[in-house]
Amino acid sequence: GESYLNNWIAQHITFDMRNQMYQHLQKMSQRFFTTNNQGDIITRMTSDIDGVKAVVTNTFSSILSNSITLIIAMIAMFQKNWILALVGIIIVPLFTLPTRKAGKKRWTLTNESQQVNDEVNGILNETLSVSGQLLVKLFGKEKYEYERYEKANRRMIGLNIKESMAGRWFRVVLTTFTSVGPMLLYLAGGILMMKYNSDLTIGDITVLVALLGRMYMPVNSLLNIQVEWIRSMALFKRIFDYFDIPVEIENAKDAVTPDKVTGDVVFEHVEFSYEESKKILKDISFTLNAGKSIAIVGPSGSGKSTIVNLIPRLYDVDSGSVTFDGIDVRKLDLKFLRDQVGVVTQDTYLFNGTIKENLLYAKPDATEEAMVEALKKANIWDFIEKQEKGIDTEVGNRGLKLSGGEKQRISIARIILKDPTIFIFDEATSALDSISEKKIQDAIDPIIKSKTSILIAHRLSTILAADEILVIKDGTIAERGTHKELLNKEGVYRELYETQFSKALIEEDGVSELEQYIWGAQPADEPMDE
Ligand code: ADP
User: What is the DSSP letter of 502?
Assistant: First the structure.
């Protein structure tokens, strides 16, 4: 019964801890996940919590049973002879001397070994993931990575051995004290019997020595528990360090959930930085009216993705505001807000599962027809139809059994199914070849034309589909307007056009048609401004 209870309590404590930690981590901002080592997160969720479980499993019942044994043994001794009982107890405080030291040592070693554990988990996580392993193979770094892993692993076993040995001398000291007790008792008993003629018998002294053994045993166990407890504080600390990280992006207490939204987005004097010292966005103001589309262009690293990250509150502004339908996004219910925004990024993430499962992630109650329709709109149905298992085809880890373009189009189907109020395409086509890109372009064009959308783009054809173009440079809006207006300005946009867009244009199919669109009635080979 006791065993069952112990296990039940320990398992449920860790069960609750894990669930709470998972929930807490889910509330952490992107900042947390981009900054912290993955191995660190995994160790805390697994071995730190398991370590706590090991301590908790026997601690409570052991404290109870040992305390009862201790009290009974002491009462029995005092009843037999109070003087000898005192002699036996007098050395007990000595037992506690090494406890703190042993506990502290184990605390330090546990801390160190868990840090190495973080490192080991980090290496595993990085090098045994699909992308990590690809990098290892292509750079021929197998040996290097193995050695790195082996080294960390060796450090860990070294620390583990040290840690279990750290308790040894502590036990030796305790055993020594334990044997000193009976000696003292025989000595004091003998003196009492011979010198003071007390009515003590040899039998009484033997009984007292036996009782003393009974008393020291629980004292030893309790001190061992104390050492274990001090050690486990290292684990608790690591766990609570995480629990203590404040939630950065939280639902406001008075969060509102509007009944109907149109989709107007307004940025007003937005300033933002990832790290205090480096301002990324400076005084960004623009309006995206419902039903319209904006293209954001600019050199790499100028802050384009950062701007769109602020809309679904992946980060909050430092100053200024981002409003959605006139309501500050920080005031909107977070789930509601994120339901209104659909983002397709360059680095598409599909979960390991079937295409259908990945689509249902966006809309769990979607019918098969709705899914097929979304896949058709995303220009991927032809491909899926040809697959033996159709929509039940497995996509593999991170969707890596599919090509970049296929993955991207499935992620577009996922967004179409989600049907958000605002669509955001963050360089959705930049990593693709021109044929894949054309298919994606055809899929997103109708969305750009009919829905409220923001597109971060580096291809001219995408940019041209938008109603307005914002040119971002060094975190500010350097220019804004239509393609023609911007070209005439001879500024950043013109420069980008000459270095990036026009090159892409030549690569594309249907150049002349596009050029006609750009240059209007002018002949394609005559630059507009001449
Ligand atoms: P763009 O989309 O225009 O290429 P980003 O918005 O991704 O640019 O990045 C703007 C700047 O912010 C870059 O200098 C980049 O180094 C920095 N940055 C981006 N993400 C983070 C992050 N999570 N933490 C710290 N700095 C970041």
Answer: H
Nearest CA, atom 10, ligand 1: 303
Cα separation, 229 vs 292, in Å, equals 62
| Cα(153) to centroid(ligand 1), Å | 34
Q: Treating both helix axes as pointing N-terminal to C-terminal, what angle do 49-80 and 202-243 enclose, rounded to 10 degrees?
A: 160
Which residue is listed with tokens 């390991």? Answer: 352
Which two tokens mark 315?
């980060």
Contact of 295 with 428, CB cutoff 8 Å: no
Q: What is the DSSP string of 112-125?
A: HHHHHHHHHHHHHH
Residues forming a β-bridge with 183: none
Edge-to-edge order in the sheet of strand 468-473: 341-345, 422-426, 452-456, 293-297, 468-473, 476-481
Alpha-carbon gap, residue 469 to 446, rounded angstroms: 18
**Under DSSP, is residue 501 helix (H, G, I), strand (E, B) or coil?**
helix
Report, as ranges of residue numbers, the positions in the chain whose pLDDT lies below 70.
428-434, 501-530
The residue whose CB lies within 8 Å of the most ligand 1 atoms, and thus the one to mutate among 280, 425, 455, 471, is: 280
Q: Is 231 in the pocket of ligand 1 (CB under 6 A)?
A: no
**How far does residue 301's CA lie from ligand 1's centre (Å)?**
6
d(CA 429, CA 456): 10
Nearest CA to 229 out of 59, 97, 66 is that of: 59
Does the beta carbon of 34 sit less than 6 angstroms from any atom of ligand 1? yes
For residue 524, the model assigns a pLDDT of: 42
Q: How far apart are CA 62 and CA 221, in angstroms?
A: 8
Position 430 scores a pLDDT of: 62
Rounded CA-CA distance 336/269 in Å is: 24
Q: At 297, is the secondary structure helix, strand, or coil?
A: strand
User: Which pLDDT score is estimated for 505?
Assistant: 53
Give pLDDT, residue 56: 82
Strand order in the sheet with 327-328: 281-288, 265-272, 319-324, 327-328
Helix (H, G, I), strand (E, B), or coil: what is residue 477? Answer: strand
Segment 415-432, tens digit of pLDDT = 999 989 999 988 766 666
Is-contact 28 242, C-beta < 8 A?
Answer: no
Burial class (CB in 10 A: 0-12, 13-18, 19+), 154: exposed
pLDDT of residue 403: 82
User: How many angstroms separate the CA atoms of 215 and 119, rounded?
Assistant: 44
Are 325 and 258 in contact by the 8 Å Cβ rule? The answer is: yes
Residue 277 Cβ contacting ligand 1 at under 6 Å: no
Q: Which amino acid is at 214?
A: R
CA-CA distance, 25 to 46, in Å (whole number)? 14
Q: How many CB atoms lie within 10 A of CB 403?
A: 14
d(CA 289, CA 446): 17
